[in-house]
């Protein structure tokens, strides 16, 4: 059975002009001609075309493809093995590139303009993009979210290190008050809660007291936040929430 040049072009996803060119340079000469002189391609021709397209996809110039395919010392199975190895290597490289692009896309989504190495240096095993999609879905249409994005996009690695250090210091202060048995509605605890609110406003988004109380409730209601604070000091999530509520009440 043989096929016309138009049929082969459809099969292979190439243009008729490309097949004419391959014929003209001797790379793929159809094995038959119709009575009218039209090109007709058989199964062997289609096999060769597949080999040509594999090598072309791998970046080989046409003259090298012709030399490889016309080498009498090379078994057709050798071509397949070589192409499989080259394609596997290319797939691996493309997967690495895709992962890098995906990381960059997520970083842009969160506004964190750091390389993967810098993100690891700053955040360690914690992935700052882990809940990016959820955050965008829940708060993407708010002014706070947009403000946070703008600020985050401008931060450098050193800025993020400073922010992490400051936030850790705020948490350490609250944990120390809890360790000492200081009441959550004491002046000290409320002052620490106020520093927590001001930190958020200074580094992420404007956080009025009403919004701060919502955050405090979320620290207790959302098990992910609770686990974060409990890892710092058992009981810290509830203690910080209570101090935030007391501070908000103090400020009307």
From TrEMBL:
User: A single Pfam family, by name?
Assistant: TipAS
What top-level branch of life does the organism fall under? Bacteria
Query: Where's the HTH merR-type domain?
Result: 1-71
Q: What CDD domains does UniProt report for this protein, alphabetically?
A: HTH_TipAL-Mta (cd01106)
Arranged from A to Z, the UniProt key words for this protein are: Activator, DNA-binding, Transcription, Transcription regulation
Heme as UniProt keyword: no
Q: Which SUPFAM superfamilies match?
A: Antibiotic binding domain of TipA-like multidrug resistance regulators, Putative DNA-binding domain
**What InterPro entries would the database entry show?**
DNA-bd_dom_put_sf, MerR-type_HTH_dom, MerR_fam, TipA-like_antibiotic-bd, TipAS_dom
Work out whether the entry's keyword set contains Manganese: no
Write down what this protein is called.
MerR family transcriptional regulator
């Amino acid at each position: 059975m043989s096929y016309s040049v138009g049929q082969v072009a459809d099969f292979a996803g190439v243009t008729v002009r490309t097949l004419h060119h391959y014929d003209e340079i001797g790379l793929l000469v159809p094995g038959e001609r119709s009575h009218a002189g039209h090109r007709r391609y058989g199964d062997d021709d289609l096999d060769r075309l597949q080999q040509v397209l594999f090598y072309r996809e791998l970046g080989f110039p046409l003259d090298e493809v012709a030399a490889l395919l016309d080498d009498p010392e090379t078994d057709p199975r050798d071509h397949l093995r070589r192409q499989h190895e080259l394609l596997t290597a290319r797939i691996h490289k493309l997967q690495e590139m895709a992962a890098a692009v995906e990381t960059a896309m997520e970083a842009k989504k969160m506004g964190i303009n750091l390389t993967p190495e810098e993100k690891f240096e700053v955040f360690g095993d914690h992935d700052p993009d882990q809940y990016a999609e959820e955050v965008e879905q829940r708060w993407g249409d708010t002014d706070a979210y947009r403000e946070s994005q703008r600020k985050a996009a401008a931060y450098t690695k050193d800025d993020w290190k400073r922010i992490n250090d400051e936030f850790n210091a705020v948490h350490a202060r609250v944990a120390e008050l809890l360790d000492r048995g200081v009441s959550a509605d004491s002046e000290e605890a409320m002052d620490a809660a106020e520093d927590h609110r001001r930190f958020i406003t200074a580094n992420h988004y404007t956080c009025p007291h009403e919004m701060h109380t919502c955050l405090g409730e979320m620290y207790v209601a959302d098990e992910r936040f609770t686990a974060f604070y409990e890892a710092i000091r058992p009981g810290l999530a509830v203690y910080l929430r209570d101090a935030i509520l007391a501070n908000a009440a103090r400020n009307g």
